[in-house]
Write a structure and sequence with these properties.
11 helices; UDP-N-acetylmuramoyl-L-alanine:D-glutamate ligase; 10-stranded mixed beta sheet; 34% helix; alpha/beta; 14 strands; 322 residues
């Protein structure tokens, strides 16, 4: 069976967040106390969990999304969008007393620099019971995806179920601050940008952070270094996969795109170099488009040399180990 045929057979469950991204384009992000006249306003579907679910669905996988929304216009938009993407949303519930997730974003036109503030919402307020109710779907899935944009109790319950059923867990380690708790357990794959990886592990450089992640139970690690390269490790050494150079549009959704495609590729091929290669190609496509979910590629849009399952593909160069 080919790589593309295996994509269609793959069942995944994503436990995560949905946000509506409210974006104002500007020449410079306002400083504290400053009010500026900016440029155009755009509204996109986003959220780290929902982005990952859409990326996996567009890859051709069978996707179940577990999360929550409010009884508001953004919640209606969320349901319509995920249904349109052919995602199973039986566990995407309405919390009448909560608001649907919203992210306010300032996006600089020239530099690509952005600042975002995510509101407390149904994403943080759905209980561990929702994850427990999704246990049958988790049990039948080959891959489970999660990130840190949901409540700690729901995340802990997901880790418990993955451990119980020995499921392959893929974690996008974001958002991260100094209060972020790193849940214990076995990780099939962890993906983060360089700043978050160092902050999460309290390490001073990328390579020390990768070593610490392996020590804490992470089998495979991919670190995004700016928009230039992916540094990856399975514990036997460090390697670099360059990210193809494209005309930069917006960065929203690109790491979730990487997370979905790298996790899926690693599951199918068993090869981290293949996963980094496919993930980098998908990420580059996303960088060249606007909108978190709007930017995510369908598999027919990726002009890549699809790897054969269980066949190694050498697209990397060795990184110096420190």
């Amino acid at each position: 069976m080919s790589f593309l045929e295996k994509l269609s057979d793959l069942q995944v469950t994503v436990v995560g967040s949905y946000n509506t991204d409210l974006v104002i384009w500007c020449d410079a992000i306002p400083a504290k106390g400053q009010s500026l006249v900016g440029g155009e306003f755009d509204m996109y579907s986003g959220g780290r969990g929902a982005n990952c679910a859409v990326a996996a669905a567009r890859a051709g996988c069978q996707v179940t999304f577990v999360g929550a929304h409010g009884r508001d216009i953004f919640g209606k938009m969320a349901v319509e969008r995920l249904t349109h993407e052919r995602i199973d949303i039986q566990h995407f519930i309405e919390l009448p007393s909560s608001k649907t997730g919203v992210a306010l974003m300032f996006q600089e036109r020239g530099s690509g620099t952005h600042a975002a503030l995510v509101a407390t919402s149904a994403n943080n307020q759905f209980s561990a019971d929702l994850v427990t109710k999704a246990e049958p779907d988790i049990r039948k899935s080959s891959l489970i995806f999660a990130q840190f944009e949901i409540g700690s109790s729901a995340l802990s319950e997901l880790f418990r179920l993955c451990e119980r059923h020995r499921k392959r867990l893929v974690v996008h380690a974001a958002p991260v601050d100094r209060s972020t708790h790193f849940p214990g357990g076995r990780y099939f794959l962890l993906i983060a940008d360089d700043f978050d990886a160092q902050l999460l592990t309290r390490q001073g450089d990328i390579y020390a952070a990768i070593r610490e992640l392996h020590r804490r139970g992470v089998q495979n690690v991919i670190i995004k270094h700016k928009d230039e390269a992916l540094i990856f490790s399975d514990g036997s050494g460090y390697h670099v996969q360059e990210i193809p150079s494209v005309r930069f549009m917006q960065e929203a959704g690109v790491v979730e795109c990487l997370t979905a495609w790298a996790g899926i590729s690693l599951e199918i091929t068993g090869d981290l170099a293949c996963a980094a290669y496919v993930g980098a190609e998908a990420m580059a496509f996303s960088l060249s488009r606007y909108g978190a979910q709007d930017s995510l590629p369908y598999r027919s849009e990726l002009s890549v040399d699809w790897p054969k399952p269980s066949a190694r593909k050498h697209q990397t160069s060795t990184a110096k180990q420190e």
